[in-house]
Amino acid sequence: MQSPAGYIAAIKTALDQSPVIATWTLLNEMTLSNRGHIRVRLTLSNGDFVEASEFFSVGSTSIQQQRYRYQWMDPSKTQLRKRWDNAPHFPEIATFPHHVHIEQENQVLPSTLLGMLDLVAHLESSITDATRP
């Protein structure tokens, strides 16, 4: 079983090592014996901006995301690219409460549960794919 501090350390390592994250700032970090929270701001290699927040608990075999919000914006921070969250405000979505907003607040699609490490992998895939000829 991974500790909350170990999970946050893994996130920080992923942020440090990601080729698509130019800079990142830790806004909040909290760990208790069985849960924690991390909030970061990222500047991506293409200039885009991401703010990510995750509250999690430690289960018997895995980390469990309790509440999360990952917002990906253009460099001017005026155009939403995607926002994943699990706020319980779209009960009609098949993956309720998990969903993603695509480019507009009212364009909501089903989404699977994401952890911050999944987010980093998604950003790497999306930005790498967008820069290939």
Describe the structure.
With 133 residues, this protein is an alpha+beta fold. It has two helices and seven strands, in the order αβββββββα. Strands 1-2-3-4-5-6-7 form a seven-stranded antiparallel β-sheet, covered by helices on one side. Strand 3 (49-58) and strand 4 form a beta hairpin.
The N- to C-terminal Cα distance equals: 42 Å
> How many beta-strand runs?
7
Can you give the mean pLDDT? 93
Q: In percent, how much strand structure appears in the residues?
A: 35-45%
Low-confidence regions: none
Rg estimate, integer Å: 15 Å
Question: Which class do the helix and strand fractions yield?
Answer: alpha+beta
Helix content: 10-25%
- What is the number of helical segments per DSSP (H or I, 4+ residues)? 2
Order of helices and strands: HEEEEEEEH
Key features of this structure:
133 residues, alpha+beta, seven-stranded antiparallel β-sheet, 2 helices, 23% helix, 41% strand, globular
Question: How do the helices and strands line up, and which of them pair or pack?
Answer:
Elements: H1 4-17, E1 21-31, E2 35-44, E3 49-58, E4 63-73, E5 80-85, E6 99-102, E7 108-110, H2 116-131
Antiparallel strand pairs: 1-2, 2-3, 3-4, 4-5, 5-6, 6-7
